[in-house]
C-alpha cells in the first residue's frame, strides 16, 4: 500500500514537471504576433477600453475605497489610458498582488499593470516594461522620535515587512543583525510600529510615505530618507508588445512636459509634503 | 442533559454552600480578568472613538465588510456543495468491491486529509497555472482547496456512517432485488448521512472558518476586505479584527443552531438509527482544521 | 533543477518543519491540559464554570485560527503586554503556541465531553452510591473510561493541530508554509517539486500517525 502511494506521488511529480517544462516552451512561441494591432495600442483604438492591474491596499499609491481606487499609481494609469484615447469610464481596475502580476499580464487578465512594479531583469524575461515613471528605494519608517538613522543602525532592532517580499529578503541577507518580523500586509506592520512592538517598517520609500501621510498617523512617523536600494517603477505589459511599450513611454514624456505628471503627484503622494521628483525621460526603457 | 443528575449527588446544604463559594471566587476572578483586559485596551487607546467610528458609517459596511462577507459565504457555499459531492463519491469509491477503484480513492482521501490547507491553496493558485496556462482565479483556488480537504474528511465520515448501518439493511435490500448502486444510493447513504449529521455540520463550520485562509492568495473574503482593506483605509486593524471575529462567530453559531434543529427534526421522525443511551447531550466530534 | 540539493534551501525546509514539530508538541500539551480542564468545567455542578466552558468552546471553535493568532499578537502581546521572550522569533513561537492551544482546547473539550457520554450512566451512579464526590467520580471512574473512547477523535484533533501549525506563519514565524512560499518565490520553475516535497513530508508523517491512533483506539476500546 505504502509503495503504491509513494509511486503515485512520484509519478504525479514527474508528470507535472514534464508538463510544466513543455508549457514554458509553448508560451514563448505561441504569442508571437502580439505587437501591432493586437497590442494595447490596437486594443485601445478598437474597443476604447483598458484593464489596468493595480494595488488595492497601499495608501497614496493604489488604495481601494469601495469600488473606486485612489493613489499615484491610479493617476498614472489614467494618464496612460488618456494617452491611448481611452476615457476614464472605459478603464476597468483590477486588484493585483505582488505575486500574480506577471501571470496576469502573460495570461491577458490585465492589459497593463501599474502597481509599485519594480523593473528588474528576472521580470523582464516574462513581461515588457514602459517607464520607469518613478524611482523608489527601500527605506525605513520609524516613530518621529526614533534614533534610527539608516539600515546600518538596525542591529538588534526589530524590523517589519511583508512576508516573502524583496525588502524582507534584503534585510535577511544584507542586514542579518536586525530581527525581522513578517506579516501579510503593511497595515499590520504599521500597527505594530504604532504599538511599539517593532522599531521600524521597511519597504519602498514611496509606500512608506503613503502610510505616513494617513491622517490617523499624522505626526507619529517619519520616513528616514536614506534609500538603500533602487526600485525603478515600471508599467508592465505583454512581452512582445513593443509598440505598446513605446507608446507608453511617449505618453510619459508628454506628461512630464505638460505638467500632468506633476499634477498626478501633487494630488496624491504630494500631500505627504514630499515634492515631486522630475520624471527623468532619459532613463525610460528601450522596450526591447 | 442528564449529566447533572448522574455525575454528582443533588447538593445538600454543605455542598450548596461550597458551590456558592466557588461561584463567587471564580466569578470575581473572571470579572477581574475581563476588567483588566478592558483596562489595558483602554490604556492603549484601543476604545478611542476615531478607531471605531468607521464601523458606524454605512459605507464601511457596504464597501468592505459586506462584500467580504459575501466572498466568504460564496466560497463556503460552493465548496460545501462540492465537498459533499466529493465526500459521497469517494466514500463510495473506498467501499467499492473493485481494488482498482478502492485503492486510488483511498490514496486521494488520505493524501488530501494529511496536507495542510494553506499549502494546498498556495499550490493551486501559483502551481496549477503552470500546467493549464490559465490564470487561477482566487475564488476557485479557495473552493478547490476547500473541496479537496473537506471532501476527503467528509468521505471518511460517510464511510464510517455507511459502516454503522446494520448489515441487515443492505441484506434486506439485496433480498428484494436491489442492485449495488440502488442499495448504496437509496438505503445506505441516506441513513449514513443522518447518523453522521453532527460530524458533517461541524465539518461545514470548519469549512466556513477555513475560507479565511484565502487571504494568502488575496481572495476577497472577510479577513482580506474587512480587516486588511479596512485597516489600510482607517488604520484600525485591531478593531476591524474584533468586528470580523464577531461576524464569524455569528455565522457559525447560526449554522450550528440550524443543524441542531435539523438533527432534532430527523430524530423525532424516528428515521435515524437508534443510538445507545448517553450521559450528556448530543455528541459532536470535529477535527478542528 | 534540484532545489533541495542547495544547502540554504534545505536549511529553510528543515527549519520550517522543526518549527512545526515544536509547535505541535508544545501546542498539544497545552491543548490537552486546557481541554480536559474545560471538559471538567462543562460537566461540573457549578453553573459559572459550566457557562465559562460553554462560552470558551463557542467563541474559540467558531473563530478562524488566523484571527485567534492575530489576537495573540495584537491583543495578548501588543495590547495586554504579555511578553514571552525578548527574542522576536521565540516570542512569536510562544504566541503561536497560545493561539493553537486555546483554539484546539475547545475541540479537545468537546471530544472529551462526548467521550464521557460513552461511559454508561450506571458507572457514575455506582460511584456515587459508594459515596464518591464529583471530583472522585470524574477522575477515578468516568475520565479513565472516557479517555479510551476519546483516543480516536483526539488523534484527528492532534493531526489537525499539526497541520494548523502552518497558520502560525501569519505572525511571521518561518514555519513550513512560509518556508514553502519562500522557496517557490526564489525557484518558481520548481513549484511542483517544492510542493510535493512539503506536502509529502506532512503525508508521510501524518498518514501513519492517523493509522496509529486508529490501531490504538481499537486496542484500548472498552469491551462492552
CATH class category name of the largest domain in chain A: Alpha Beta
Strand content of chain C: under 5%
How widely separated are the two ends of chain A?
54 Å
User: How do the SSEs of chain C run, as a string of H and E?
Assistant: HHHHHHHH
CATH class descriptor name of chain C: Mainly Alpha
Radius of gyration of chain C over all CA atoms, rounded: 21 Å
Class based on secondary structure composition and strand pairing of chain C: mainly alpha
Mean pLDDT of chain A: 79
What is the strand tally of chain C? 0
User: What's the CATH H-level superfamily name of chain C?
Assistant: MetI-like
Number of domains of chain A: 2
Structure in words:
The complex is a heterotrimer of chains A (288), B (289) and C (224). In chain A, a hairpin with a 2-residue loop joins strand 3 (62-65) and strand 4. The model of chain A is unreliable at 1-36 (pLDDT under 50). By secondary structure, chain A is α/β, with parallel strands linked by helices. Chain A folds into 2 domains: 36-136 and 232-275, Periplasmic binding protein-like II (D-Maltodextrin-Binding Protein, domain 2); 138-223, D-Maltodextrin-Binding Protein, domain 2, CATH 3.40.190.10. Chain A contains 10 helices and 13 strands. In chain A, helix 3 (72-83) runs antiparallel to helix 10. Chain B is built from 13 helices and no strands. Chain B folds into 2 domains: 1-44; 57-268, MetI-like fold (Orthogonal Bundle). The longest helix of chain B is centred in the N-terminal third of the chain and has 37 residues, at 58-94. The model of chain C has no long low-confidence stretch (mean pLDDT 90). Chain C is flat, with a radius of gyration of 21 Å. Chains in contact: A-B, A-C, B-C. Chains B and C meet through helix 1, helix 2, helix 5, helix 6 and helix 11 of B and helix 2, helix 3, helix 4, helix 5 and helix 6 of C.
What is this entry, summarized?
The complex is a heterotrimer of chains A (288), B (289) and C (224). Chain A is an alpha/beta fold.
Write a concise keyword list for the protein shown above.
heterotrimer; A: alpha/beta; D-Maltodextrin-Binding Protein, domain 2; three-stranded parallel β-sheet; 10 helices; 13 strands; globular; B: 289 residues; mainly alpha; MetI-like fold; 2 domains; 13 helices
Amino acid at each position: 500500500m505504502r509503495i503504491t502511494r509513494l509511486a503515485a506521488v512520484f509519478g504525479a511529480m514527474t508528470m507535472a514537471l514534464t508538463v510544466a517544462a513543455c508549457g514554458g516552451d509553448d508560451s514563448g512561441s505561441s504569442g508571437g504576433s502580439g505587437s501591432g494591432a493586437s497590442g494595447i495600442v490596437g486594443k485601445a483604438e478598437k474597443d476604447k477600453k483598458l484593464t489596468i492591474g493595480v494595488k488595492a491596499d497601499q495608501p497614496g499609491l493604489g488604495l481601494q475605497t469601495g469600488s473606486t481606487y485612489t493613489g499615484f499609481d491610479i493617476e498614472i494609469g489614467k494618464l496612460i489610458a488618456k494617452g491611448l484615447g481611452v476615457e476614464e469610464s472605459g478603464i476597468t481596475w483590477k486588484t493585483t498582488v505582488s505575486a500574480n502580476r506577471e501571470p496576469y499580464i502573460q495570461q491577458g487578465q490585465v492589459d497593463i499593470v501599474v502597481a509599485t512594479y519594480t523593473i528588474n531583469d528576472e521580470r523582464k524575461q516574462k513581461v515588457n516594461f514602459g517607464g520607469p515613471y518613478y524611482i523608489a528605494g527601500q527605506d525605513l519608517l520609524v516613530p518621529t522620535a526614533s534614533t534610527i538613522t539608516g539600515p546600518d543602525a538596525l542591529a538588534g532592532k526589530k524590523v517589519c515587512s511583508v512576508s516573502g517580499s524583496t525588502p524582507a529578503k534584503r534585510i535577511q541577507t544584507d542586514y542579518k543583525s536586525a530581527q525581522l518580523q513578517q506579516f501579510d500586509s503593511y497595515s499590520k506592520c504599521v500597527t505594530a510600529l504604532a504599538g511599539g512592538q517593532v522599531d521600524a517598517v521597511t519597504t519602498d520609500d514611496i509606500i512608506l510615505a503613503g502610510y505616513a501621510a494617513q491622517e490617523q498617523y499624522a505626526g507619529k512617523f517619519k520616513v528616514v530618507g536614506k534609500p538603500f536600494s533602487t526600485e525603478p517603477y515600471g508599467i508592465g505589459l505583454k512581452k512582445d508588445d513593443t509598440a505598446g511599450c513605446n507608446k507608453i513611454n511617449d505618453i510619459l514624456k508628454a506628461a512630464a512636459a505638460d505638467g500632468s505628471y506633476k499634477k498626478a503627484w501633487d494630488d496624491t503622494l504630494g500631500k505627504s509634503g514630499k515634492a515631486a521628483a522630475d520624471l527623468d525621460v532619459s532613463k525610460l526603457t528601450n522596450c526591447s | 442533559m442528564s449529566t447533572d443528575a448522574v455525575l454528582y449527588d443533588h447538593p445538600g446544604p454543605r455542598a450548596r454552600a461550597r458551590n456558592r463559594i466557588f461561584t463567587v471566587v471564580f466569578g470575581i476572578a473572571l470579572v477581574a480578568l475581563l476588567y483588566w483586559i478592558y483596562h489595558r485596551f483602554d490604556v492603549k487607546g484601543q476604545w478611542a472613538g476615531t478607531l471605531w467610528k468607521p464601523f458606524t458609517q454605512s459605507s464601511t459596511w457596504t464597501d468592505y465588510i459586506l462584500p467580504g462577507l459575501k466572498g466568504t459565504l460564496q466560497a463556503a457555499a460552493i465548496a460545501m456543495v462540492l465537498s459533499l459531492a466529493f465526500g459521497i463519491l469517494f466514500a463510495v469509491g473506498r467501499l467499492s468491491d473493485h481494488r482498482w477503484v478502492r485503492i486510488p480513492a483511498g490514496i486521494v482521501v488520505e493524501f488530501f486529509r494529511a496536507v495542510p490547507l494553506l499549502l494546498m491553496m498556495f499550490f493551486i493558485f501559483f502551481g496549477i497555472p503552470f500546467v493549464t496556462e490559465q490564470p487561477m482565479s482566487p475564488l476557485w483556488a479557495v473552493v478547490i482547496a476547500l473541496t479537496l480537504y473537506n471532501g476527503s474528511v467528509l468521505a471518511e465520515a460517510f464511510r464510517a456512517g455507511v459502516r454503522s448501518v446494520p448489515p441487515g439493511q443492505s441484506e434486506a435490500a439485496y433480498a428484494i432485488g436491489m442492485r449495488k448502486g440502488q442499495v448504496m444510493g437509496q438505503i445506505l447513504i441516506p441513513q449514513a448521512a443522518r447518523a453522521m449529521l453532527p460530524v458533517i455540520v461541524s465539518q461545514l463550520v470548519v469549512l466556513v472558518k477555513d475560507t479565511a485562509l484565502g487571504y494568502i492568495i488575496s481572495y476577497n473574503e472577510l479577513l482580506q476586505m474587512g480587516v486588511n482593506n479596512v485597516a489600510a483605509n482607517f488604520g484600525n486593524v485591531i478593531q476591524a479584527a474584533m468586528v470580523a471575529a464577531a461576524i464569524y462567530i455569528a455565522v457559525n453559531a447560526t449554522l450550528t443552531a440550524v443543524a441542531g434543529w435539523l438533527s432534532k427534526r430527523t430524530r423525532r421522525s424516528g428515521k435515524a438509527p437508534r443510538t445507545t443511551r448517553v450521559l450528556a447531550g448530543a455528541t459532536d466530534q470535529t477535527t478542528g482544521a | 533543477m534540484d532545489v533541495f540539493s542547495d544547502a540554504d534551501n534545505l536549511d529553510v525546509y528543515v527549519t520550517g518543519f522543526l518549527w512545526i514539530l515544536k509547535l505541535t508538541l508544545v501546542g498539544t500539551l497545552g491543548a490537552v491540559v486546557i481541554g480536559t480542564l474545560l471538559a471538567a468545567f462543562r460537566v461540573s455542578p457549578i453553573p459559572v464554570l459550566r457557562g465559562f466552558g460553554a462560552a470558551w468552546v463557542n467563541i474559540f471553535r467558531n473563530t478562524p485560527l488566523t484571527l485567534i493568532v492575530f489576537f495573540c499578537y495584537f491583543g495578548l502581546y501588543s495590547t495586554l503586554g504579555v511578553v514571552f521572550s525578548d527574542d522576536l522569533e521565540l516570542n512569536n513561537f510562544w504566541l503561536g503556541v497560545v493561539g493553537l492551544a486555546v483554539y484546539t482546547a475547545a475541540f479537545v473539550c468537546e471530544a472529551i465531553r462526548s467521550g464521557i457520554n460513552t461511559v454508561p450512566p450506571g458507572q457514575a451512579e455506582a460511584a456515587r452510591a459508594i459515596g464518591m464526590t464529583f471530583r472522585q467520580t470524574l477522575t477515578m471512574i468516568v475520565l479513565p473510561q472516557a479517555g479510551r473512547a476519546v483516543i480516536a477523535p483526539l488523534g484527528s484533533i492532534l493531526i489537525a493541530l499539526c497541520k494548523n501549525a502552518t497558520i502560525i506563519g501569519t505572525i511571521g514565524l518561518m514555519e513550513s508554509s512560509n518556508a514553502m512560499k519562500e522557496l517557490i518565490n526564489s525557484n518558481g520553475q520548481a513549484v511542483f517539486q517544492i510542493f510535493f516535497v512539503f506536502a509529502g513530508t506532512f503525508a508521510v508523517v501524518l498518514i501513519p500517525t492517523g493509522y496509529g491512533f486508529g490501531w490504538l483506539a481499537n486496542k484500548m476500546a472498552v469491551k462492552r
